[in-house]
Design a protein that fits this description.
Keywords: Lyase, Transferase. The chain is 31% helix and 32% strand. It has six helices and seven strands. Strand 4 and strand 5 form a beta hairpin.
Length: 203
Amino acid sequence: MSEITLPSVTTAKGDLWVFGYGSLMWRPGFDFEERVPARLVGEHRALCVYSFVHRGTPEKPGLVLGLDRGGACRGIAFRVAEKNRTEVVAYLRAREQVTSVYREVMRSVWLENDARQRVSALTYVVDRGHAQYAGRLSLAEQHRHVVQGHGQSGANRDYVTATVKAIEAEGFRDTQLHQLALMLHGDAHSLHAPAPVEDRENR
């Protein structure tokens, strides 16, 4: 569970495992040899990062996921071939570390396959000392930020919806994310609902 350094993650021998718990689950963006459901213990998935770039702006921040301390998290472990290690790490740093809100670390994850082995995987944990760390927000606060959020990668609501679909595809639920998705679904329906008929008799 140690912090990794530039030389160790890029020059280590063997294949590289990467743990995805948010958008990496449904849009990894890199080549991999194997994709396995996995569990990480000691941190949990949370909408605890204000997004200033991908899903919001400094003026109207969105919210994206981070791994925060405590609990456990189910996600996806991707096995990257050794020959692609340097390229994939560079890609992940460009994608995840735009504002350095995450700490790049190695964590033990348990693969949920027949072998059930434990591997060390590269993942991104929120930096609690960073200005973009949102902490524990109420569902109403999360909803407000997600509704307003729109950045270089698109609408914040699309990020939440896609992540929930990816979680469901793996056969489990994330209670708070699912509650938020239901609220966003309700918003969409209300936006397309027919206008109320004017009651002329009671004018």
